[in-house]
Amino acid sequence: MIPLEPRSVPAKRGWQWIAEGFQILARYPLQWLLLCALLWILSSLIGRLPHIGVPLTLLLTPLFLAGLMLACRAQEQGRAPQPQDLLAGFLSNGAALATAGGVNMVAQILIAGLVALLGAEHWGAFIAAMNQPTSPEVVSQLWHRLMPLFLAAVALALPVVLMMWFAPALLAFHPIPALRALQLSFFGCMRNVPALFLYSTVILLLLVLALLTPFGAGLMLLLPLLVTSAYVSYKDVFAAPG
Fold this sequence. Notes:
mainly alpha, 242 residues, 76% helix
């Protein structure tokens, strides 16, 4: 068996991940829109559950994303994406995917709790200022106090994002433990920082444009592209050449 190790790709591949992801999406656009709409609705319903909604969403996200990765693979093999693909991750290395989801859940909750604890006073003052007539100068001062906390939250969350980026695809396509997949994902991202930076920059620009569309309809178009381009990035960094 060939060792599963990430390889480095040129920076320009970050843009090409999006272009090739669009090609996947363009072949079955309605099916992909339906699949991602179902994910959106299901995640929203789970997230609304009292007390457990948000943790459960974080836990299940890798399983749903694995299903979408499997849908991309199925399309390459000649089958259109289907609604049941969303649950395919539960049947493909599901225990490891759930473990990865558990790591994601615990890490995100700890980060949110730490930031909330450190900035409780400033957050309370900022929210109170936004809910009553307050001079722009006061709001600006409060926001500047919150900025270090915001940057700290981003810095703490970034390693988690890197560990989770390739993990759903790795666990969907390879019978490896969750911690191994998280490790491979992290190092795969670190070996491809230029490509990921270009990819993230373009996605951020597309996100801004999507938010400008009526009722945020552009977000529903962007979500399938995120899925298919993530699959392309996985193949580029981990799949065997040729």
